[in-house]
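Aim 2, interim progress: modelling of the flavin-adenine dinucleotide-bound target.
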Amino acid sequence: MSADHDAIVVGSGPNGLAAAVTMSAAGLRVLVIEGAAAAGGGCRTEELTLPGYRHDACSAAHPLALASPFFRRFDLAARGVSFAHPEVAFAHPLDGGRAACVTRSVSDTADRLGADGAAYRRLVGPLARGADDLAGAVLSSLRRPPVPSRALTSFGLHGLRSVEAVAGRMRTDEARALLAGAAAHAMMPLSAAPTAGVGLLLTALAHAVGWPVAVGGSASITDAMAGAVVAAGGEVATGQWVTSLDDLPPARAVLLDVAPRGFLRLAGSRLPSRYAGALARFRYGAGVCKVDYALSGPVPWQNNMARRAGTLHLGGTFEEIATSEAAVAAGRLPDAVYALVVQPGVADPTRAPSGRQTLWAYCHVPAGSPADMTASIEAQIERFAPGFGDLVLARHSRTAVEEEAINPNYVGGDIGAGMQTVRQVVARPTVRWNPYRTPLPGIYLCSASTPPGPGVHGRCGELAALTALRDIFGIRQPPDVGPDRLPGKSPAPGH
Ligand SMILES: Cc1cc2nc3c(=O)[nH]c(=O)nc-3n(C[C@H](O)[C@H](O)[C@H](O)COP(=O)(O)OP(=O)(O)OC[C@H]3O[C@@H](n4cnc5c(N)ncnc54)[C@H](O)[C@@H]3O)c2cc1C
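Predicted structure of the complex, ligand included:
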């Protein structure tokens, strides 16, 4: 690690790297310090099971990357990163070989929902058509009123509610389950607000931009970001956990891609007690237990369209998923889990040797649970794809406790780096006009524990970096992060 950097970023997740990219594009020399052996945080790809099987260790589906204003400017395509779109963005299988399936067309999706087709069109249509406005407003610091639009009015009406309230207008199992499965990404009881907002945003993006996987694996995204930082003269140092702010080399600005709990540890007694108290009260959500599989062939979903889906939501009806999520929130392991599954091989054949497949799955568990939920996840897969077990060549599981051990931002296994209650969506991590600024001069927070929250969109990092550029370097104009201004190496072959 050489000295003499203008800015230091601790943590190399998509937000840490977006901060580093933004500072590099402003002409600053940036050092990124990452504790893990590889850069990328929640956007990494590894051979977790068998040689030749490349698994997304964390994020796998990328509607938010495609919708992100940061990534649009950074221009992943020009940097050699490509996204592969499954024909079905997400499917929600039900007993008896039925499934709700979301494809790019709102109209086709609505037609498949029978009696609820018209209600689906009315609910999701305006959001999908105005998805650019919606993404611009939601993927922001949430500090300024957005430019009004029909999509935002509709999102304001429904998005701040619970999905239980919004699904009340639907009558079919399919439509109700579809809404439940998308909203359960919020990792909260389905009776809690704003679960409808999380589900509707993700569903609108499924129509507007798709839910693609990154060809070669999610790491190709963060590899391109790290490559741009290095090409600009910066450095990405891995395998070095930072335990105190006092240990950092001198720099004018420090951006921390860490959760509030990590910041409290790094700052020690330096923080004013009021701010430290607010950070200590920040609430973390449920945990996840993740399982990755090497398979001898495609999963035999009973429903034909489900076989072509990139992502699947398992757990059955709205009521079953509501029961499961309520148990998790109450600190109990559910009798039947809600599981998210991604089958990258339907769109990206590079993930496994010819004819073979990888499968990615996780389920929600109470925060800090040490339970290995492999059997519960497999019970849900078998329910909708009998014979699945015969295909398993190898599996790799990671409990909620292990998630946090690998990445301290995932407190108790909470991959959202903080609960997404209405309060914590806005006041994230605490009530402040500028949430990225901390009371310590020159020190900024840039992780998913700041607005706009979790997902691979890079906006927390970009917005924190823009604050630091203004405060410390007097740079008020957002720098051009595009490939002309900030060229970078293409991801390595095979990524
Ligand atoms: C299992 C799983 C599935 C997910 N699925 C999706 C998905 O499909 N789509 C999607 O958009 N999002 C998904 N996410 C969420 C997404 O990955 C995160 O929201 C995103 O990565 C957050 O980015 P970040 O930069 O804030 O933090 P992270 O990506 O968590 O990165 C933080 C980095 O900081 C490092 N770090 C922390 N403390 C220190 C320290 N003291 N010293 C040095 N380094 C430190 C960590 O090692 C880590 O590399 C998923 C996450 C997980 C875990």
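Residues 491-495 have pLDDT under 50 and may be disordered. The pocket of flavin-adenine dinucleotide is lined by residues 10-16, 33-36, 41-43, 58-62, 64, 241-242, 257-258, 262, 288, 290, 362, 407-410, 415, 447-448, 454-456, 460 (CB under 6 Å).
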